[in-house]
Amino acid sequence: MKCYLGIDVGSISTNFVLINEAGEVVYSLYIRTEGNPIKAVQAGLTMLKQSLKEKKIEVEVAGVGATGSARYLVGAITGADLMKNEITAHARGASHFVPGLRTILEIGGQDSKIIILEDGASVDFAMNLICSAGTGAFLDAQANRLKIPIEQFGPLALKSKKPTQLGARCTVFCESDMIHKQQIGHKTEDIIAGLCHGLVRNFLSSVAKGKNIKSKIVFQGGVSENPGIKKAFEDALQEEVIIPPYNTVMGAVGSALLVRDNPPEHTRFLGFDITERDIRCTAFNCGGCPNNCEVIEARIDNKIAARWGDRCGKWSSQKPEI
Question: Which of 82, 16, 57 is nearest to 267 (CA)?
Fold first, then answer.
């Protein structure tokens, strides 16, 4: 079976999707990055290889696409044929499942984004990379304070009849407000629903500020697994919000589809045995000019796989040793 592999490595999760030539998902995987993208990629490829073996599925990987904040690193250590930013990858993936969509709301653990599309192409976007009040980290912090598993947040929020109004614009001040509302007798499910509405207010007033949100509206990313947030978006926007298939790994889906759309004549994929090789990543400052660029260097079995980060191409244009 000829397949295309998409890999999305972010600060919180590392995702893998294998699709066939028809664009159908053959395999998907969501694992934690845990601060080590190299190990996460090796672990994910090991799990993919094992799963295919157990299912007795033989595949020919005809192309690999990488996205996410660590896409250049992933591209170097796996031999990716295509490296695209998250906006392009998420837009391509979501459009595959929801034709005619106009707005993508994407909330992950550490960042959030909104993408506006016209005729399947992204025409505007915005990201929140600084404040965590509009991300999954915000909910995780409050779940920890309430001693409630984050998986229970959504179902509990849906039980609320009157969500609590919280000053949830900042995680620093949210705890004291929550404690106060608990002390005056607000129910736990009302507080949790209030937190969901607070996250949505933060998202719409910061990330989505000034954006023309039109239906069809798609909600994806790890936080889209929380039905309380979906309802809060629908209440705020007065529009249906669609949770597409593979909503938590959409960046990887989009990467696989992008490389399938423009397949290489011969893939650069280094194979699944990359999981058994010694991969290291270091950095050095060039010092060749006043820019003093920080150059990132990836090595596989002590051989240079790739260098990037220089503005002039002095290092990145050099032929790799593998």
Answer: 82
pLDDT at 191: 87
Q: How far apart are CA 192 and CA 194, in angstroms?
A: 5
- The predicted structure's pLDDT at residue 168: 53
**CB proximity list for 106: less than 8 A, separation 6 or greater:** 90, 112, 113, 114, 115, 219, 220, 221, 224, 250
Residues 116, 201, single domain; the answer is yes
The Cα 241–Cα 87 span in angstroms is 19
pLDDT under 70: residue ranges of the chain: 129-134, 167-175
Beta strands 241-242; 112-118: pairing state? unpaired
107 is in which domain, residue-wise?
Answer: 100-243
Q: Which two tokens stand for residue 31?
A: 């694992």
Cis peptide before 216, with omega less than 30 degrees from 0? yes
| Residue 56 and residue 21 share a domain | yes
CB-neighbour burial class of residue 100 (10 A; exposed 0-12, middle 13-18, buried 19+)? exposed
* Domain shared by 74 and 118, yes or no: no
Which strand (E) or helix (H) includes residue 303?
strand 303-308
Provide the sign of the torsion angle of the four alpha carbons 64, 65, 68, 71, taken in this order: positive
Q: Please indicate, yes or no, whether residues 14 and 27 belong to a single structural domain of this protein.
A: yes
Q: Tell me the two tokens of residue 209.
A: 């500020």
Q: Which pLDDT does position 171 carry in this prediction? A: 58
| Model-wide pTM > 0.70 | yes
Are 227 and 154 spatial neighbours (Cβ–Cβ below 8 Å)?
Answer: yes
For position 321, what pLDDT does the model report?
82
Task: Provide the number of structural domains found in the chain.
Answer: 3
Compute the distance between CA of residue 301 and CA of residue 5 in angstroms, rounded to an integer.
Answer: 23
> How many other CB atoms are found less than 10 A from the CB of residue 152?
13
